[in-house]
């Protein structure tokens, strides 16, 4: 009996030594163990044979590590996603925005699809405008000609920025470098060096611009006015008749061609050589005495260009 009591006493002393060692380690880490009885055994644990429960177990003289729940928060492994959300809320609060109204702490704001809604609204507005412009150009009414010309001019002609450039020059003493169009002159189609150029109709007025036809212009002149060649060249085609009007095509240097249409009569024939200002035809007479129209077009390398950029029409 005495031998058994001695074994138990030595075992209890060994357990007490282990507990004291663990207590010194946990005290260094800021962890307080559970309360113990006068024998040094935790109240929450007990001795069962050779095993003692001390927030873990002691088996065979070895103590297991404390439970993870007993560790402080900074010692436990933290969830990266939780940490990121917490940091995000701190950053939003520091910037003055805070969390969205009506959200519970920890709840992420939901995407409302504002970008998609805005895109759909813009597409709907663009479709309505396109349908309106398409329908306007399908109309053949007198009142529709003015808005048609305005839209065609806005889509084909460059914006005149000279007034804005002059204002900027006066106000800030210099043109803005971030707007390269300021201070640049528009490109013009150059004719051959030293070659004379003449207006096809004297004192003519443009009544239909290149922006409206994209193939030529219509010049109004007095009935019976003489039509002259704009440049030096060779007549390649003479077509039409008195009823529908005559048309003349002249080829010039630099792969350039001029077209004159709706003339009452002509003075030239194919393969004739003409100089700038030579007579090539006559405008027809009108019954009501109104002005006659001359169709005039310029083609460069097979493409129509604005005649106002090639021939002086003033």
TrEMBL record:
Q: Which residues form the M23ase beta-sheet core domain?
A: 215-307
On the tree of life, the source organism's domain of life is Bacteria
Which stretches are transmembrane?
119-137
Pfam family, any one: Peptidase_M23
Recorded GO molecular functions are: metalloendopeptidase activity
Q: Does the keyword Membrane apply?
A: yes
Which keywords appear in this protein's UniProt record, sorted alphabetically? Membrane, Transmembrane, Transmembrane helix
SUPFAM superfamilies linked: Duplicated hybrid motif
Q: Which CDD domains match?
A: M23_peptidase
What name appears for this protein in its UniProt entry?
Answer: Membrane-bound metallopeptidase
Query: What is the species of this protein?
Result: Thermobacillus composti (strain DSM 18247 / JCM 13945 / KWC4)
For this protein's source organism, the top of the classification is:
Bacteria, Bacillati, Bacillota, Bacilli, Bacillales
């Amino acid at each position: 009996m005495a031998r058994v009591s001695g074994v138990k006493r030595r075992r209890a002393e060994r357990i007490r030594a282990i507990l004291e060692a663990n207590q010194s380690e946990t005290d260094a880490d800021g962890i307080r163990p559970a309360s113990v009885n006068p024998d040094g055994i935790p109240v929450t644990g007990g001795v069962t044979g050779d095993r003692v429960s001390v927030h873990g177990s002691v088996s065979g003289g070895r103590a297991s590590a404390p439970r993870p729940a007993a560790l402080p928060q900074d010692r436990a492994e933290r969830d990266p996603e939780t940490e990121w959300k917490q940091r995000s809320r701190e950053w939003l609060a520091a910037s003055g925005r805070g969390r969205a109204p009506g959200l519970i702490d920890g709840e992420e704001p939901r995407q409302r699809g504002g970008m998609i809604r805005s895109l759909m609204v813009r597409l709907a507005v663009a479709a309505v405008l396109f349908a309106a412009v398409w329908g306007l150009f399908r109309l053949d009414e007198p009142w529709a000609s003015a808005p048609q010309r305005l839209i065609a001019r806005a889509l084909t002609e460059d914006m005149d920025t000279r007034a804005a450039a002059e204002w900027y020059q006066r106000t800030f003493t210099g043109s803005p470098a971030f707007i390269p169009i300021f201070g640049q002159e528009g490109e013009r189609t150059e004719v051959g060096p030293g070659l004379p150029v003449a207006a096809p109709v004297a004192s003519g007025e443009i009544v239909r611009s290149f922006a409206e036809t994209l193939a030529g212009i219509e010049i109004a002149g007095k009935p019976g006015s003489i039509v002259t060649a704009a440049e030096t060249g060779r007549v390649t085609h003479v077509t039409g008749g008195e009823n529908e009007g005559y048309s003349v095509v002249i080829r010039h240097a630099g792969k350039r061609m001029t077209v004159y249409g709706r003339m009452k009569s002509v003075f030239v024939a194919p393969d004739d050589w003409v100089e700038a200002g030579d007579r090539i035809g006559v405008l027809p007479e009108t019954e009501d005495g109104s002005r006659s129209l001359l169709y005039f077009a310029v083609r460069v390398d097979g493409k129509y260009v604005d005649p106002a950029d090639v021939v002086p029409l003033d």
